[in-house]
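question for whoever is on the cluster today: can someone run the full assembly for these? two chains, 1011 residues total. i dont have access anymore since they changed the login thing
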Amino acid sequence: MADHHSRATSPGLHRPGARFAVCASLALAATAQAAGDPLGLAEADLLGPIPELSIVSHFPQTAARAPASTTVITADMIRAAGAMNWVDVFRLVPGFQAYAVNANRFGISYHGQGRELPNHLEVMVDGRSVYDPIQSTVVWGALGVELDEIDRIEIVRGSSAAAHGSNAFSGAVNIITSAPVQDNGTQVRATTGERGTRRVALRHSDQTANFDYRLSLGFDHNDGFPDYNALGPDDGAETWNANLRTTFTPTLADTLSFDAGFSRHDTEFGDADRLDEYIPVRYYSQYQRVAWEHQLFSGRELEITFYRNHLRANGVRDLGLVSDLTGLGPVAIPTLFGIPDQSFVTGFHTIESERFDLEALYRAQTERLTWAAGAGARQDAIDSVFLTGDGGTHDEQRFRLFAHSEWLPFDRWSISAGAMAEKTSVGVLLSPRVSVAYELFPAQTLRLSGARGRRAPSISEAEERQFALLGGMVADDIRRTADLDDERIDSLELAYLARFPEQGIDFDIKLFREEVSDGIDDHREPIPALPPFFDDERLVRDNSSSWDTTGVEAQLFYRLSERSWARLHYAYQDLDSRYINQFEPALEIKDFDGGTPRHSGGLLFNHRWSEQFDAGFFVYHQSGVDWRNGNQIGAFTRIDAQVTWRLQIGPSRGQLQLVAQNLGGDYREFNRENRFETAFYLRAQVDLPD
Amino acid sequence: MRALGDQRERRPRRRWAVLSRHLLVCALALAGDLPTTLGADVQVLIASEDSYYMQAVASLREHLAALHPGVVTEVDTDLKADWKAEDLLVTVGSDAMVRLRAEHPQRVALHLFITSDSWLQQRAGDPGLAENPALVFDQPPRHLVALTRALLPRATTLAIVLGPISGKHLNQVHGEAEKAGFEPLVGALSADANPLATLSPLVEATDAALVLPDSADFNSAVARWLLQLSFRARTPVIAFSRAYANAGALASVFVTPEDIGREAAGILDRWLKTGEYPRGMQYPDAYSIATNPAVATALDIELPDDEALRARFEAVLEALP
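^ ran it for u. tokens below:
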């Protein structure tokens, strides 16, 4: 009689909650040949593949068939790594450069060059792009997303312009937060620890007769790096955030969701080499998002999403009277400059960006072909006298069409192809991607992928014109922008993926080469200095750099036993780059070959001693980097550890976690002042009964 | 459409082989010991080339070849005019059954890889179908109830999630649940129902939730919410497919295409040797169970090992009145 018994395992998704989140995609996966079948229930109704992740092609697919390398970071991994901020999270991803520009400004990038404002990675929160058009990067501190609210993070390691457009030039990240239906009741969290860290958060989930909702509030404060504080600038931060997620299901086939959020983030902004010019900045960030998912027939689905992002920041610092700064005396200022002696206020003053985005997506699936197609429109607007040199609003409309497919022409073979056509300020950009995967042996796949990504400059990159003004007079000409064209990346990767559920092993490795041309970069340009106390050169943004990266990346998940698991990742990158530093008086070409770590990798291990206790550690090593916009910093190895104790307090469930970061000697990152000492944090969490 | 038979088996038979077989038939006929199916080929009509049909057919070929060496098995997606009267006909998939019945309602065939629902619906307008043997692909509600009891011996209340099609099994599954000692609480969903409003109180009020198969669209829409809501309420879900267990159900009991092919080979072997075949629809004897240890851990449910669970499941089945 009975002769089969199997245990479902999904090594990429070890947190049970994540599995349930994944089931949300199950709706897309069922092979639904039977709909419309006059006989009703049919064979295909009882079958259905398991989706793994949706970020690569806009439909669920397994990692082996996805046309790009991927990584999934689960909530359990974030907790086990003792992560306290976004840098700690992205250190878990092979090939990613995650660094603290200062204690509260983070740089996250993939390949290429790690710099103060990395601009080649698309980051989304629940599918909403949070790439800010005015700073041409992600303002991580103003996201308003707490790590404890994350269900999982899906990451494309490789150009994803074919699926997500210009900003996904080198990769894409989708941070998926917990849905309202995933938990119930009230949760209170608190964290205290080094650098004056104080965090308090509250989350409440419940349902009314018609909809489910999840409300979260958070406060976060820290004092920043001690070395900064000793030198003058305060790189501490204080953040308030509030987020609301709602889900309404009027019928079985329809899901409506509305999300909104607000955050206020106070920190300081500045350059490592000019600590005296740090400016205090206050960010206000808010968003609204509505989405409608409609399940059609036979597994077909329509999804329409609209969202708005708004970011406003104000940053100024009064450097003192011009007479004091110049040493000329108060009387000389009106005589020499024709303005009264006054305070010299530096900073970007008020900058504002606003984004509206509308996208329609259609998905369908048959036995051998899965595909998705969509269209979108986006309006970005920025407003900044400091960046554009005028008081007007600068805006840009972009339109996009995209389609992706996964075709299984024969047993063991799968072919994925997709492309995006994006209408931008520099023309219509076509970004295609194709991959062929062959299953060498059961659960062992060899995949060859090629992609071309094209990136249009953001509005601020294209239209930036910076002056320093003093009493209405141009005191310094800081930056102009040339007539920019799009940046291009051509990538090729050969990957081997193996999955052995019985042994608890999930492994992949890829060899890759990426060639970037027409990279947007700055070169110096001499100008007549007016007045003579200021710079006699300015920066010019132009398509003046190129770089090639060749390397290897690997990640291994190994479930050693029911109680223990380990995750190992490694990346080797060989960067060959050149950029024009100046055309005049003589052409000067430089490189940033040291701008990315040649070796990086980590080992994350966790063991559950009992139902109440688990403990683990994360060892991370990174070779030396000569950071652009930062300093040359040597190799470091960092060891973090955590112990978690789960307890029952009457009717409430609780959790205490002790996190130790950087056990061992101090190390520095990005800037010399970013000195990481050993730090301890205590985190408490209580789930109150309904 | 092209024929799908294995090339080795589809190669034209040599004349001497055909001649010798005819001589054997004549000899047996003279001896008065001729089974009605001697000399018959097996003609398989499949609904489509979908992989699960092909897996079932491959399993059927393999096991039939082992049981009945020399039998010729032809596979097609279209009805053929040259099927001989003595050939044994097999359909794989509901669509194939419907097409064969429409063209040759007088011919008896073994119908495989159909659901009990499609059998009952076809039979309603085609009474002659009842004389045919059929091996369905779905599991009886009794198996789902028994698996729930095997995994959750102390559970007292059971949510039963039904849709427009599976709603027809309400009385049966309700009765089986009561026999197994559960107090059933039924949640019947239509396409216009609000799944969160319907399912949320249901899973919060029960110790376990059982979901019966319905249309694929219904299954996927319900799975999406049922699994998340049940996890929130810490209520384990027992379901009918491996996909469900992978996605977050505690366990599923189901039949694989390989199981179907193997059992069908047994029926055909008997038919070929004796001319006898069972009449009417039957559930397969074989089954598979998939469990999700991560879900069990999260819900603090002790999951027995494979052997123990199977033994417990069989014991519950036998004990059910």
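summary bc i know u wont read the tokens: Confidence is low (pLDDT under 50) at residues 1-15, 21-36 of chain B. Residues 108 and 132 of chain B are 5 Å apart (CA to CA).
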